[in-house]
Amino acid sequence: YTIYPTKGTPMLVFCDMETDGGGWLQFQRRQSGSVDFFRDWESYKKGFGMQESEFWLGNDKIHLLTSSGTQQLRIDLEDFSGSKTFAKYSSFRITNESENYKLMLGSYLDGNMGESHSGHNGHACSTKDRD
């Protein structure tokens, strides 16, 4: 899908139109391990990989998309044996680069994963060259 953020330029994104009513923009996917996610700050800033397989959308884009309005967050995980878990949060955003792309989570809403990601609330992005 091509989306048109209120600021910035149009961007191509992958959306899950089936899970939990659909309309979920995916900003990360990891499946086979074909893409190395142990990367530097600049890679996470700009994004990497291919949206058809494994990718990170990019911190600048995620910041842009989460800086206006309220965005829910749904995290879906599946292990190699096919066991699935998820967690859903009322809101999320990441701050800008000058604040080190800090993750800001709202309240935990639902899921069978529990609040396992709430401990990351308020934490800055960390990469192999910047921790």
From TrEMBL:
Residue ranges of coiled coil? none
Tell me the Pfam families matching this sequence.
Fibrinogen_C
Tell me the GO molecular function terms. Answer: antigen binding; carbohydrate derivative binding; signaling receptor binding
Query: What GO biological process term is on the record, naming one?
Result: complement activation, lectin pathway
Q: Which domain of life is it from?
A: Eukaryota
Stretches assigned to the Fibrinogen C-terminal domain: 1-131
SMART domains from the UniProt entry: FBG (SM00186)
Q: What InterPro entries does the database record attribute to this sequence?
A: Fibrinogen-like_C, Fibrinogen_a/b/g_C_1, Fibrinogen_a/b/g_C_dom, Fibrinogen_C-term_domain
Q: Which GO terms describe its cellular component?
A: extracellular space
Instruction: Fetch the PROSITE patterns from UniProt.
Output: FIBRINOGEN_C_2 (PS51406)
Q: Where is the signal peptide?
A: none
Q: Where in the cell is it found?
A: Secreted
Swiss-Prot/TrEMBL keywords = Disulfide bond, Secreted, Signal
- Primary location class: secreted
Q: Kindly give the PANTHER family that the UniProt entry links to this protein.
A: FIBRINOGEN/TENASCIN/ANGIOPOEITIN (PTHR19143), FICOLIN-3 (PTHR19143:SF415)
Name the record gives this protein: Fibrinogen C-terminal domain-containing protein
Organism of this sequence: Micrurus paraensis
